[in-house]
Amino acid sequence: MKMIVMRSSARAVVAGAAVLAAVALAGCGGSPSAGGSGGKLDVVASFYPLEFIARTVGGDAVNVTTLTAPGVEPHDLELTPKQVGQIAAAKLVVYEKSLQPAVDEAVEQNAKDAGFDVAPAGQLEATGADFEEHEEGEVKPAAHNEKALDPHFWLDPIRYAAVVNAVTDKLATADSANADGYKARAKTLLDEVGKLDGEYKTGLANCKLKTFVTSHEAFAYLAKRYGLTMVGIAGFTPDAEPTPTRIEEVQKIVKNQHVTTIFYEELVSPKVAETIARDVGVKTAVLSPIEGLSDANSQETYLSLMRENLQELRKANSCA
Predict the structure, then answer these.
(1) 159 found inside a domain
(2) Residue among 65, 98, 56 nearest 84 (CA)
(3) First CA to last CA distance, the chain
(4) Which of 104, 235, 244, 297 is at 20 to 30 A from 74, Cα to Cα?
(5) CA distance 97 to 101
(6) What is the model's pTM?
(7) How many Å apart are CA 297 and CA 266, to the nearest integer?
């Protein structure tokens, strides 16, 4: 099986690294053995879900640079020379192979030893959701691709926890002097992710509706974990243009299954979702794929955004 390489017709250039908010957990002082600036371990994270892990588990022992700034759609990321230099200088680069081709290339060329691909830890599956792809700047309809691996592991708390463990092990190996601190902070984070899983199980256990419609197919793992059915307007790539046939299919599903809400996301235009909602007479709401933060929610965290998603799903699906 292969993992789908996501491309976009509109490439966004990120002007330097950004610092995003993360959970404030107990820190652990850095050590000169970390080999980074200020005696701390220099870590690069490719996009927000991985940055959240690196900052939360790393605490005061790490300097974390993120490659995807607030407001930038992660699939569209192109790297500046400064960012390529940061990747080359880092002791650890945490990324998901095939999600951001520019990052894959930079790691391959400049950070083979430091690069850590989290995809194996995320236990990716071929969800069969990829029915269209970007190829060389063009949108081309495609049949369901049964071999394309769904990259959105972080929307399933259980898969996300597995990646937390994997990143923690890499941090402890890269900076053994601070291993105890990394493991302690990881335990705290894993406890929170475990609570999140419990909230989803309880919150979605008794819903009148089981189907929800999203602007792109990011939520297959979440739906599978908690007994729902996701219908995506577009495929794995969020800004892909759906075909007229796909729009008609979604409209029929909404009508036949009495769906109340069409979900869209912060970093991509809601135009298609709003048009479908208007045509079939239902509401729209935000369901965040948490691929990156927007300027409006830059103070949120992975945990708070997942809980907001839960509340939106409960409302849309009339959950008791």
Answers:
(1) yes
(2) 65
(3) 39
(4) 244
(5) 8
(6) 0.84
(7) 9
Question: For 141, phi and psi rounded to 5 degrees?
Answer: -60, 145
Q: pLDDT at position 145, please?
A: 52
Q: What is the pLDDT of residues 6-28, one digit of tens each?
A: 433 333 333 233 322 333 333 33
If asked whether residues 217 and 136 sit together in one domain, one would say no
Task: Give the residues of the chain that fall short of pLDDT 50.
Answer: 1-34, 130-144
Largest CA distance in the chain: 63
Run of H or E residues at 66? strand 62-66
Query: How many whole angstroms separate alpha carbon 5 and alpha carbon 293?
Result: 22
Within a domain: 10: no
Which of 199, 223, 247 is a domain's end point? 199
The phi and psi torsions of 184 (rounded to 5 degrees) equal -65, -45
136-174 pLDDT per residue, tens: 444 333 334 557 789 999 999 999 999 999 999 999 999
Give the per-residue pLDDT at 25.
30
| Domain termination residue (choose one: 148, 169, 199) | 199
Q: How far apart are CA 161 and CA 46, in angstroms?
A: 18
Here the tokens at position 283 are 């509401």
Domain count, the chain: 2
Parent domain of 218: 204-316
What are the angstrom distances between the C-alpha of 16 and each of 31, 46, 68, 82, 229?
Answer: 27, 13, 9, 7, 39
153 and 255 housed in the same domain: no
pLDDT for position 13: 31
| Residues forming a β-bridge with 263 | 214, 285
